[in-house]
Amino acid sequence: MEGKVYLRSEDYEQHFSPRDYLTTFYSFDSGMVAEREIVKFSLQNLHQTFSAGGIKGDVLIDIGSGPTIYHLLSACEAFREIIVSDYTPQNLQELQKWLKKEPGAYDWSAIVQHVCELEGDRSKWQEKEAKLQRTVTHVLKCDVTKTPLLGSAQVPLADCVLTCLAMECACPDLETYQAALCRLAGLLKPGGHLVTMVTLRFQHYMVGPKKFAGVYLEKETVEKAVQNAGCQVLKCSCVPLSYSQAYCVNDGMCFVVARKKPQCLKPLADKSLPWGSYGKHLKSLAPQLSNTDHVASIC
Ligand code: SAH
């Protein structure tokens, strides 16, 4: 095992092995119990959010997908189009391999079967794979520490932005984490949903022999950062699950669903008017608004 700890995004390009990552954290049927329980927690919450919870729409953008697709299996039934993204070129290649059904692609079938079981019919797993392969329309490079985070790629505003287990790895400190969440919220339509799964009290994780660190987050810090990014937290479900010590040092996992607030009208937000005069001020702004729904949704 090497002594060095990698913290910068640039380190991922040189040192992150998609295969080592997948076999450690996503072996599911044959892997360690702790890792399997965490995947099950994610799949259960994603199922609740996108199947039962009714979050759906045209476009979902996934940020920091890594070489993985497990988190899109429920969402592909609820969105017309899914855009996936990651910083690391070898992760994008690994994703493309699975999406194009190329030889040597990672075998996700055990996890796909588990999701189909949650949806009521385990035997439909091959249809589910084909559905997800059709629904992912773009595989993009992203860097959540930069603006714009998707570089020069032109993407529509999303109904949902999803990010699982990526921001705590991509961001070395709280300031960077907060800025990254604001960038993610910037990809959303007003009223769109931000869905994120976070490793709490994260210190580092192993990808083969390489150790990667990130930002240490408490539940309250995550909620605060989501709120500061202009989103209202609708659900924050935390469990005391931890990875196997040899693979990752953390304490707890957290699944958050939030909704981007309707846009504030600057003049209203900036002026400190006495309470009684907001109605009058609103009326004076009415000609600027395209329809009355906007009036109702002003914050
Ligand atoms: N979402 C996946 C992968 C998480 S691993 C899962 O749920 O398992 C962490 C990921 O963060 C890696 O794929 C890495 O490439 C990505 N990452 C690192 N720095 C990043 C950055 N600056 N912007 C976006 N993603 C980054």
The gist of it:
The chain has 299 residues and is of the alpha/beta class.
What does this 3D model show about the protein?
The protein is of the alpha/beta class and 299 residues long. It is built from 12 helices and 11 strands. It has a 7-stranded mixed beta sheet, with helices on both faces. Strand 7 (204-207) and strand 8 form a beta hairpin. Helix 5 (109-118) crosses helix 6 (125-135). The model is unreliable at 266-299 (pLDDT under 50). The structure holds S-adenosyl-L-homocysteine.
* Uncertain stretches: 266-299
Shape: globular
Find the structural class using helix and strand composition.
alpha/beta
State the helicity in percent bands.
25-40%
Our count of helices gives: 12
Strand content: 15-25%
- Radius of gyration, CA atoms, in whole angstroms: 20 Å
Hetero compounds = S-adenosyl-L-homocysteine
Overall pLDDT level = 90
Query: What's the order of the H and E elements?
Result: EHHHEEHHHEEHHEEEHEEEHHH
Order of strands, main sheet, comes to 4-3-2-5-6-11-9
Q: What keyword list fits this structure?
A:
alpha/beta, four-stranded mixed beta sheet, 299 residues, 12 helices, binds S-adenosyl-L-homocysteine
List the helices and strands and how they pair.
Blueprint: E1 5-6, H1 9-15, H2 18-25, H3 33-52, E2 57-62, E3 79-86, H4 89-99, H5 109-118, H6 125-135, E4 136-141, E5 158-164, H7 167-170, H8 174-186, E6 188-199, E7 204-207, E8 210-213, H9 219-228, E9 231-239, E10 248-249, E11 253-260, H10 266-270, H11 278-285, H12 292-297
Parallel strand pairs: 1-8, 2-3, 2-5, 3-4, 5-6
Antiparallel strand pairs: 6-11, 7-8, 7-10, 9-11
The structure holds S-adenosyl-L-homocysteine (SAH).
